[in-house]
Amino acid sequence: MTARADAMEAARDCVRRARRIAVLTGAGMSAESGVPTFRDAQTGLWARFDPAQLASEEGFRADPPLVWRWYAWRREAVARAEPHAGHHALATAESGRELRFERFTLVTQNVDGLHRRAGSHDLVEIHGSIMRTICLEHCGYDQADPVQVPAGEPPRCPQCGGWLRPGVVWFGEALNPSRLAAAEAAARDCDVMLVVGTSGVVYPAAALPGIARRAGATVIVANSAASELDGEAQLLLRGPAAAVLPALLAP
Ligand code: OAD
Predict the structure, then answer these.
(1) Which superfamily does CATH assign the domain made up of 44-80+131-168 to?
(2) pLDDT value for 1
(3) For 3, 31, 93, 175, which has the most beta carbons within 10 A of its beta carbon?
(4) pTM of the model
(5) What is the residue-wise DSSP string for 83-107?
(6) Is the CB of residue 221 below 6 angstroms from any atom belonging to ligand 1?
(7) Residue to mutate, 39, 60, 232, 236, ligand 1, most ligand atoms under 8 Å from C-beta
(8) Which residue's CA is the nearest one to ligand 1's atom 15?
């Protein structure tokens, strides 16, 4: 058996014995659905666009229409994308139709909604959702359906008159405390943490595998390339999420 096949067999065995599973996904999870990652050379969004301009409050305040248009473009792209076999394998695993777990919590850094569309319910979207619109002034306005994109400036908040902005976490912003607490609780209290398609450079999400490992969980990292989280992993599965997850989670 090759080392790769060995790792898959060992990982399948771990998953089968686990009662509580936590999963952390990143942009690589959605790559095969056609949603670009952030840091892959050439194709990653941050190779082509400036995050300071497009993913920060300062950038938005400097040019609201530019940032609003960029997110409108991304919303349209994710609305066209479909969940792949890996998203479905995670949703099926949570449903208990095939494997039985006490708890299966999916923490995602992805804002594209593909896990929800695939049927995952115990889901923590720690970086928010591109399909929501919130108020820049934090007045509490938060709407699920994206407001239609006006030609020029972004719309104004119907509650306070401030700018509306996409419901995603930008650089320099704190994560929603209850979502972060839910993600950390899932990491602290799992037998297996499965980390899929993330470079592991953005905190606090990247700290979750370490939390799980220190609490005694087995950490499995599935990625098509090396990542910053490989050092946390007892088991490394090298391959694309759409192939690795169905193989790992098949009964
Ligand atoms: P990155 O773009 O940093 O990393 C994507 C990872 O996915 C890399 O490690 C790739 O090797 C891996 N990958 C690519 N294709 C894959 C595939 N088909 N199967 C498996 N793995 C694959 O994306 P994230 O780690 O998610 O923040 O980035 C973290 C955060 O940085 C994002 O949530 C975003 C960004 O700025 C916010 O939106 C707040």
Answers:
(1) SIR2/SIRT2 'Small Domain' (3.30.1600.10)
(2) 57
(3) 93
(4) 0.96
(5) --HHHHHHHHHHHTSSS--SEEEEE
(6) no
(7) 39
(8) 28
pLDDT tens digit sequence for 73-85 = 899 899 999 999 9
23 CA → ligand 1 middle, Å = 14
CA distance 4 to 52: 39
CATH of 3-34+83-127+175-248, one of 3.40.50.1220, 1.10.3980.10, 3.20.20.140, 3.40.50.720: 3.40.50.1220
Which parts of the chain sit beneath pLDDT 50? none
Which residue lies with its CA nearest to atom 18 of ligand 1?
240
- Which residues are identified as catalytic? 127
Average pLDDT, the chain: 94
Torsional class of 220: left (φ above 0), alpha (ψ -120 to 50), beta (otherwise): beta
The response to whether residue 127 sits with its C-beta less than 6 Å from ligand 1 reads yes
Please tell me whether the peptide bond between 166 and the residue prior to it is cis, using omega within 30 degrees of 0: no
Give the Å distance between the CA of 37 and the centre of ligand 1. 5
Nearest CA to ligand 1 atom 31: 202
pLDDT the model gives residue 5: 79
Please list, in sequence order, all residues whose beta carbon lies within 8 angstroms of the beta carbon of residue 250, skipping any fewer than 6 positions away: 89, 98
